[in-house]
Design goal:
Layout (H helix, E strand, L loop, with lengths): L21 H14 L12 H8 L3 H13 L3 E4 L3 E4 L5 E3 L32 E3 L9 H10 L6 H5 L1 H14 L6 E2 L12 H12 L16 H15 L8 E4 L2 H12 L5 E5 L3 H9 L4 E7 L2 E2 L1 H7 L3 E4 L13 H12 L5 E5 L15 H4 L5 E6 L11 E4 L2 H11 L8 H12 L2 H25 L7 E4 L6 E6 L5 H10 L2 E2 L16 H11 L3 E6 L8 H11 L5
Parallel strand pairs: 5-16, 7-8, 7-10, 10-11, 11-12
Antiparallel strand pairs: 1-2, 3-4, 6-13, 8-9, 12-13, 14-15, 15-17
Amino acid sequence: MSASQQAGMLTYDLRSRGTSSLYEFLYQSIREDIARGRIPCGTKLPSKRNLAQHLDIGVATVTAAYDQLITEGFVRTEQRRGYFVEDVSEFRCKPVTSQVKYLNNEDGTSVGAECGAQDAAAGGVFAVHGTQDARFDDASAGRSSRHRGTARSSADTASDASAAETPHAIEQARDPEYFVDLKANRTSVSLFPATVWGRYMREALSLPSDNLLRSIPFNGLPELRRAIASYLRRTRGMDVSPDCIIIGAGSEYLYGRLLQMLGPTTTFAMENPGYRKFAAISKAFGNPWRPVPIDESGLLVDELEESGADVVHVSPANHFPTGIVMPIKRRLELFEWANRARKRYIIEDDYDSEFRYSGRLIMPLFADDASDKVIYLNAFSKTMVPSLRISYMVLPPKLLARYVDTMSFYSCTVSSFEQYALARFIDEGHLERHINRTRNFYRRQREAVLREIAQSPLAEISHVEERNAGTHFLLYVRTSLTHDQARQRGAEQGLNISLFNDYLLRDGDGLSERTTKRFEQYSNGETALVLNYAGIEPERLSETVRRLACVFPECE
């Protein structure tokens, strides 16, 4: 795709868009021309109306393309002046292929010969030089931390005292029942096509071949890895070999394998605020970790540099809990940080990124990485059902070779039957149809919750910050209640309430002064609730908002 500037106008052959929508093709075309320098920094783009007339398309199509470019930081808008190109001069084209040599599995199957791009993604990709949230529930993180490494002798196991304590310990670990759990990042399981899934599971069990009864490769069933690679190419603009994909039973398992492979001297950094569970896992493996504050563009790279970390965990497409999308300038800074030292890597957690309600999905860091510095991590527990403990990571070539050398003795932890069923589910298009159906449901659910809040007494003492992504939003409430009082009063109303403060990470020195000041500025002295609405049953919606209003005495 190329653009010619004629009287300040951009010209594209829209007939060559293939199966892409008009707005997506236009977005990709302008994005590529900006990244390649064909549209220089500071250039004023044509007005939406003029470009629409020139290309003979609707103004709404141009608006959607411009909005996506603004979201990703390629373009900025200036009031009453128009749209201008940002400085992305550090970008260059990502290499088409990357050849590496690998070992073979014990069963003789090849681990891989190529782990780079195989077919150029539509529109091109660019790079810089040189659940209950089953994964992240804080209570479960605490439990796993308390019980790690407690190997017991046979005498201890057989003791009557230990046996008597066991039922009580299990009872203590159970989550209490609530009218509605607004903290747990649940999914609406009623939307899952269980009949279709059951059909593929029965198919897996009835296959005449005994392949699924034998040991499978350490990195997962080839059919599933091929299906995931094809899915990532179609939906995320990622060109990866199936050999680069590692399948595991949950993101915690895969994260643990990374920690073990990289070694206890590797220091990890986490976005602050962010998920506590990854910090707990790092601590459990003996790895030092550092919380790094964020601003309105995401993780602060200068603070990351000062932290001394070797590996950083980020969610650039949808930061939790703020929903911030990391713009291109901050992404460039992050790539520059990673390229300054050989042992530095970026773990990109793309969990929940499929649920975006305006524009297209945000391009992953992995798709823009030219230096093999990004480890991509995702799971099916949110897009499908939480009980399906299947996650995957995509490793860059050098790390894959290291993983084969040091971690391939671990068996794959996911049943071959489930892997086969999931591969068929993806290949036949059911995953994308299910995500589209679920996305539409969550969009309506979000609108219904916001409408109920606007019509309730909460509207007088609160305001909502939401970014049209994920399955939660932030509700800022002007209240005299302390955080503990808000939680307690919520529990009395049958609500499990999550607060912004619950996701502030503290290392041995507590919160940094910059993090504390940043949060005070961000919250403006108000109490910020993180409201996860995905699991609210529609018939309980009105009552949930009524009970939430009763939590705060200002609404009485």
